[in-house]
Amino acid sequence: MSISTTGLHHVTAIGGNPQRNADFYLRTLGLRLVKTTVNFDDPGTYHLYYGDAEGRPGTLMTFFPWDGVPDGRRGTGQATTTAFSVPANSIGWWQQHLEAAGVRTSRITNSDEEDALSFQDPDGLGLALVAHPQGDPRDPWDTPLVPGEHAIRGLHSVTMTVAKEDATAATLVDDLGLRFVHQDGNRLRFAAGDGGPGALVDVQVSPDAPRGLVAGGTVHHIAWRVPDDATQLAWREELVGKGYDVTSILDRQYFHSIYFREPGGVLQEIATDAPGFGVDEPLLELGRALKLPPWLEPKREEIQEGLPELDLPDENNPEVAEILAERR
Predict the structure, then answer these.
(1) Which residues form the VOC domain (predicted)?
(2) What are the residue ranges in the chain where pLDDT is below 70?
(3) What pLDDT, on the 0 to 100 scale, is given for residue 312?
(4) Most buried in the list 68, 125, 184, 207, measured by CB within 10 Å?
(5) What is the CATH number of the domain that holds 157?
């Protein structure tokens, strides 16, 4: 493989009620809503992006949330757990914080000696918080509800569940440029670049598990980082040459994307780092207004009328968050 990813760009999932989704990820998990927009392929649905202060690649969890979405089923051919990175001394704090919010947790230590909490969001999406022994240098989003010393640093890893190991492993290594790290029972760990939080994927091999159904409470796709358009184009040509069915390059306004399925069925995206979330609004105002791409702007009134209202907490405004943090 001549081109390799440096790590995860984002994970996109399907949620239920948009307000409930925002309340959980902003208030309970303490992330920042860095972009309020719509699903460009289905403008009647929000697309909400959560991340750090600037929405840097590797910190992003995004959702297509809408009321009445049927429940999905976790199984093979899916990313079944999305893990966030937290400081090594914060797992106890998070356990108390989540349980106080009515979220049931399970505490585990994995084979890499990472202390972790597993839990689900209000729609049943599988999540985890992981404390990497070597720490995570990324700056957190600091809010009064989740102070900076305990706050999420970004994505840690994603777990993909597949029925068979070989073809998926080959795709990760030969076509995405990851390296095999180790195997623990039916779980294989792969790393991009130097490894560490934000550059890890675990493959859980479950031949007897049911086939997953992508709907409410499940991951739609995982995205890997690529630095620029030229590298993405070269990568697309290489993947097509190997026989993958790859989409054309799609303009997602804040990055450019291509998509393909690995042999185990998990939808993969390769997304550019640029142009980023400041392309259509100032850093201080990220996420506070509905943003539409130029080709949907003429339908703004119609789109807004079809979307439910979304009440964002004051903590999503950096100026207010700073004042509230000083009052702690």
Answers:
(1) 7-132, 154-273
(2) 1, 111, 315-328
(3) 85
(4) 125
(5) 3.10.180.10
